[in-house]
Amino acid sequence: GDSVTQMEGPVTLSEEAFLTINCTYTATGYPSLFWYVQYPGEGLQLLLKATKADDKGSNKGFEATYRKETTSFHLEKGSVQVSDSAVYFCALSEQGAQKLVFGQGTRLTINP
Amino acid sequence: EAGVAQSPRYKIIEKRQSVAFWCNPISGHATLYWYQQILGQGPKLLIQFQNNGVVDDSQLPKDRFSAERLKGVDSTLKIQPAKLEDSAVYLCASSETSGGQETQYFGPGTRLLVL
Q1: Contact A100 B41 (CB under 8 A)
Q2: Of A13, B4, B61, B64, most Cβ neighbours within 10 A?
Q3: pLDDT given at position B100
């Protein structure tokens, strides 16, 4: 079945550091790929998405590129802020379906 | 625009008791989802509704879990009887239609602790 594997957490960085959270997936077809973020005490929010190979999703300074050849969708940000501290989830949904399959989440803490 | 509403936010029960969660999706959203998020894991889909019909309930433990969406708006998820392993956050989400890759909007979740 479909699955998503994320980089193990927790990840702790200093403010203005470069961030990468790795995500790889297994799927039978051509899924859409997502990054969701969960801030403390809040619900999951869509951060960015990409629906086909080589698409780049971006939002709030975060970027991720859909790499079909490596089945990856790594999340990056050039300069993190304390307010980026949250849990980040990589997810996919198969073509023609809406069910989201999530990775296990990566907790990110940014220190001032 | 109001988001997805869920209640209660927290619930503590003893094993073998029953519990129910309520979800009110974003107005006009035809598709509603219930996910279970166990601590340290990503959310897992329990059931998906399109209007008031079930689209996918393949991962719903039907011996103890039930869900309904009367009139295609609000939904309730029930657990009866609860087990220790049901301790989790139960997330409700909604999206506009069942086609394409519409964004799912999540509620704040109900955190359940079974003692």
Answers
A1: no
A2: B4
A3: 58
